[in-house]
């Protein structure tokens, strides 16, 4: 049913994208659960991964009402190990990250909270150890770097809407403590942004995707518990709603996704944090209105959850010649029509040490490669 999607470069006139040789996605299995609630064309949302000290691999997978912990140690035979309910039962947006043996989970609808799950009991079960709104209410996205948990667009019970919060999870992973809150800078009595949509942190540099206002880069001063604005990227080619980004391991390149129909991905030179520069743009069938959602970089490959296009992998080893390595269409409907909705592949996780790669599709569940 799910066939590999082959892109015809010349016919579709893609932007600066050829095909890489020697890389191929192999579908091993597809996991989903029957009878789950549906809102518009959505059952599932984000996905993340975790492996224990014995090398057993698990996927953390969100639906509208719950969080699923699926073992994929044998990727051809995924096994559901536990299910935990979210605080709100119709959450379109969920997000997960892991720290040690803990999973941190947020959602961006209803009366949500920060939930923490202890996964050390797997494969038997998962234990919820924290479910509280005092530090984090509704939140759109989270990121963990070293011992800090970063919360993008935090609806705080005391302070109201906060563009970004940082919590310390190193002292006690089951009881986060607040470090610092960030609000957009004020220029001429006007706040430049009020929300951080997604955040990526590397080497004390915090890349904030702030939607229509572009990208804001902050330096994290952990001694003073302070965020210092370093530079901004507020005008660039094929600009849309700046959604999310991910950098290479050396921190020199950043792939940036604008969640706007018909926009391409951007490859950004961030080797000099004071002057971020877009080197090139690339994408899949943008002339049909397709939308990149979330990019993830491993080595010289960029794995993109690309909504209608499914999982698309690019080779970025040559910044001047980004090429498509392979793709798999998780949502093979209306392939040659103009796209005007938000359907298909939501998230991906390419970081399992075994080489297993997973992607989440909003209707078709979990894909394991």
Give a description of the structure.
The strands form eight sheets. This protein has a five-stranded mixed beta sheet with strand order 1-28-27-26-25, with no helix packed on it. A four-stranded antiparallel beta sheet has the order 2-31-30-29, with no helix packed on it. Strands 3-4-5-6 form a four-stranded antiparallel beta sheet, with no helix packed on it. The protein has one helix and 31 strands. The two termini are 16 Å apart. With 369 residues, the chain is mostly beta strands. Helix content is 1%, strand content 47%. Strand 4 (57-63) and strand 5 form a beta hairpin. The model is unreliable at 1-16 (pLDDT under 50). The chain has one helix at 9-12, and strands at 18-19, 29-31, 44-51, 57-63, 66-71, 79-85, 94-99, 102-107, 114-118, 127-132, 139-145, 148-156, 160-168, 177-182, 186-187, 190-191, 198-202, 205-209, 215-221, 226-233, 242-247, 253-258, 265-269, 277-282, 294-298, 301-305, 311-315, 323-328, 345-349, 358-361, 365-368. The longest helix has 4 residues, at 9-12.
